Amino acid sequence: MYRTKFFFLALLAGLTLFLLTPIAHTSAQENVLIPVEPQQNFEDGIDTEGTAVATCPASTPQALLAGDSWAQFMWDDGSHNDIFDKFGHADKEMISRSLDSDPGPGYEGPEYAISGSEALHWANTGSYPWIANMAADLAANPTINTVVLSIDGNDVLAGKPEGGWYKDMDLDVPGSEDALFDRIETDTFTIINAIHAVRPDIEVIISSYDYPNFNVGFWCFVYACPKREALSRDPVNDLITDIELNAMMVNVEQRRIGWTNNDSRLFFDNSIGLMHYYYGDGVNAPGELPYPGTTPPDYLPFPGGNPDRPTLRENFRLYSGFIDADPIHLDYDGYQYKISNQTMTYFFPKFRGTPTQTFFSQGGSNDGWSDGTSFGTDSVYVGYVGGSSRAGIISIDTSALPDNAIVTNASLYVMRDSGSGTSPFQSGALGTPSLDIATGSFGAPSVEAADDTAAADAADAGCFNGTARQDDYAVRMDLTTEGLTAVNPTGLTQFRLRFPNSPSSGNPAVWFNDGDSALRSGDERLVWQIKKFVERMPDGRLVEVERAVLAIEHQGLAEYMGSPRPFLDVTYCTPPQKINQVTIDQANNDVLLTWDSVVDAQFYDVWQSNDDPYLMPGLDCAGDGMCTAVVTTNYTDSDIFGTAPYAVYYTVVPRNDCGGVATGAATSPVGVFSFAIEAGS
């Protein structure tokens, strides 16, 4: 978010001192063997560490990440695509193009996640290509329906020397603070309007920042100290404090919340105080300070965390991997938390849709695994262990579905508890996974050895999304058309997850949580994270420090659902019932039909015949000249009578969007006629 050119020039002096000083190696905590989360490498939206093996349709770009260095680092870290995978939606892609330094006006490259860029630059389309580059990728990817926009931070941090914000700026020019923010708003909406010029329905997330920490010790000369001075009106006598820096950030985000509340296509990603919640603030422990509010319009509690203290130094990115000089940008773990928050509040609900009903697995003896000769109910075990291939069994009571439900979509989610070797869902070492479904159970409801090979009512009936590469990562299985028909509206539905092949070596397997699993709570949520950086000791030595810090572990999809148990999202509709009675009247040359409304009916097909008193409706009203679909409970057939004898008959069929229609739902025909009725005719 800061200006990289300035940072680089100041860094040269620091590097000179660094290279002339030998580095000692020590550790702030002994015997802590905790692996550091590997940083992922993404290029053009593709995870080069491996993607899920699945039979699903190809993944598609769903979102675009644009803006300043926060966008650049989130993209370079692969945070969005990794967290989408963690929530079971690896088939949804974030795309971006990043550049680690603003090259200045006249640049012609294709990027649009630019370190150091300001909204002011973006709006200057004659000198900067960022809007055009972003719009080009939006136009080239019509499946993108969301833009995450991280912008405005550099406009503020430009400080007094470069036309940005500074403490008490109104004392110099009354109204200058509001004027600055009005300009920033105008420039930001130039970007947003350009997005909507590509497609008006694209939703835009205004991505917030978090509390800074300018207390970088020895490395202060590199960036933090000059920047603190630039944000002060009188740096000699009235240097801006940490509390005042936080208040500035809160003010910025409060204004941006107001922007998003005025347009239903705009959303706010509230991260103010997020690091305080997960790590504490140095006084309060992890989990003790308020989680930033996620509900508009006020996002209460706002701000989150403790606005009187900066984010802990351990949460910031190390320049070049070892220099602790950055007061602004979160490290890899910090951005993982930020994007998890963004996914919880926006992306997962959007990806998931609105299921009609959700069912959790039963647990007990009805969830477990089988390998054909033995079985267990300790977890849902999928993969290869000790010379045998194990299939996971999940039992879900779906009897709460209406008996006449028409299931249009269903997705089964499972969440990893632990594993052995590289996840076969990521590596493909065991082939393509399959999902079999029993309408009822494969044998007895309780898991048994024979479940491994028992016949299924729908075989290979799901497409898989997710790598399950680490604990708490979810795998989603979307049911095929055959799978949907196997969902049992009157009792138990059982699912069998398995791989077809044996590995060349090792025991690649995943243990998924079963219906007896619960969220970790209390101290069970805490994990140690290793942070490494270089510090200068009082004697002048530069020392590589390895420090273990305590944090709350994000449990992914389980945290959103309030449980790590397997669950089945079902979307269904029920066919409307028959209309009790249709009333027919004649008014001059018009026929008037009226009827009572019917529950679950979204529209009504009015069928007409001029000669058939035993009128039978067709299957589809669309395109039939003798049928009219209406959404009201009345219909007028105008000017149908002539001078010759006539007879007109009608029947009405209630329907809904999913094609549902009750058996015998068509009404008995009603009609009008102008001739006499004779016996036997």
What is the element layout, followed by pairings?
Layout: H1 4-19, E1 23-25, E2 42-43, E3 46-47, E4 60-67, H2 69-77, H3 79-86, E5 92-95, E6 98-99, E7 113-114, H4 119-123, H5 130-140, E8 146-150, H6 153-157, H7 176-198, E9 203-207, H8 224-230, H9 242-260, E10 266-269, H10 274-279, H11 332-352, E11 357-360, E12 368-370, E13 375-376, E14 380-385, E15 388-397, E16 406-420, H12 424-427, E17 434-439, E18 462-465, E19 474-479, H13 481-486, E20 492-498, E21 509-512, E22 526-536, E23 542-552, H14 557-561, E24 567-573, E25 582-587, E26 590-595, E27 603-609, E28 627-630, E29 634-637, E30 647-655, E31 670-673
Parallel strand pairs: 1-23, 4-5, 4-8, 6-7, 8-9, 9-10
Antiparallel strand pairs: 2-3, 11-24, 12-13, 12-15, 14-15, 14-21, 15-20, 16-19, 16-21, 16-24, 17-20, 18-19, 22-23, 25-26, 26-29, 27-28, 27-30, 30-31
Helix pairs in contact: 3-11, 5-7
Describe this structure in words.
Helix content is 21%, strand content 25%. The protein is built from 14 helices and 31 strands. The radius of gyration is 31 Å and the shape is globular.
Characterize this entry briefly.
This protein has 14 helices and 31 strands. It has 681 residues and is of the alpha+beta class. The strands form 7 sheets. Strands 11, 12, 13, 14, 15, 16, 17, 18, 19, 20, 21 and 24 form a 12-stranded antiparallel sheet that branches. Strands 5-4-8-9-10 form a 5-stranded parallel sheet, with helices on both faces. A 4-stranded antiparallel sheet has the order 28-27-30-31, with no helix packed on it.
